[in-house]
Fold this sequence. Notes:
The chain has 124 residues and is an alpha+beta fold. The protein has one helix spanning 2-21, and strands at residues 27-32, 39-47, 50-56, 62-71, 74-83, 86-97, 100-107, 113-120. It has one domain: Beta Barrel (Lipocalin), CATH 2.40.128. 16% of the residues lie in helices and 56% in strands. It has an eight-stranded antiparallel barrel. Strand 7 (100-107) and strand 8 (113-120) form a beta hairpin.
Amino acid sequence: MQVSRWTLTMVLALMIPSLLFGADVTGKWKGPMQSGDGEAVLTLKSDNNVVTGTMLGIDGKEKPIIDGKLDGDNISLTVATEWQGNPMKLFVKGKVSGDQMQINIAADNGYWSTDATVKRETKK
């Protein structure tokens, strides 16, 4: 009986941090956008529930994530970018499932949005 209580305690102690802090999304994520506008490319680093990094813009330049959060398997990011010389933000929201994310990317003005399935690249 003592061994099983100890084992249960250890299992719970190892599981609780992952439930509280969410998935680790560190890495490079890529996948096609359903709008046909190319590929969504995110380079992310997660530390507990804070996500930082960049998103590749349509101009081929990396755009900074200015607000990134991870709540369990839910991810939300705000990306600072521009369109035709005007500053704007992209809102990225989605769900992480292992090495895959289902995300929605939407412009702050509501004129454009798309869904994408991105997968984490494996290190070679």
